[in-house]
Specification:
By secondary structure, the chain is mostly beta strands. It is built from 1 helix and 8 strands; from the N terminus they run ββββββββα. It is globular. The mean pLDDT is 93.
């Protein structure tokens, strides 16, 4: 299992401000693999505050490059798409969160739970 954590700030500055963001790959980080995204909204579009969001998706792209990094893509529910790069040692995940217009609404630098605690 691989689990990455970090802070999420939505680009509009109000939907998510300094919120905990977690990405979990229960097994391998590979094409067709499962991914779970969990975070909290500071304030949703409907005005509700501190609402948890958990989605389960499937990795739709997982390309391993000669430098050992893995470029991944997956859907997070029916709205957001994620594109990211996993470091060679699998200790860091840089992730872009995109809306349906393919606009980046979040740039996340996530670290494994072990790396985040050291």
């Amino acid at each position: 299992m691989y689990q990455y954590v970090g802070k999420f700030n939505h680009t509009n500055g109000r939907y998510a401000v300094n919120e905990l963001f977690t990405v979990t790959f229960p097994k391998a980080i590979s094409l067709g693999g499962t991914v779970v995204v969990a975070f909290q909204w500071t304030k949703r579009v409907d005005g509700k505050e501190k609402v948890n969001d958990v989605t389960v998706g499937t990795i739709t792209k997982a390309d391993i490059y000669s430098d050992g990094t893995t470029v991944i893509e997956f859907l997070g529910g029916e709205y957001y798409k994620y594109k990211g790069v996993v470091s060679r040692q699998k200790r860091q995940l840089n992730l872009d969160m995109l809306n349906p217009k393919h606009e980046i609404v979040g740039k996340l630098k996530l670290h494994t739970v072990d790396a985040a605690s050291t």
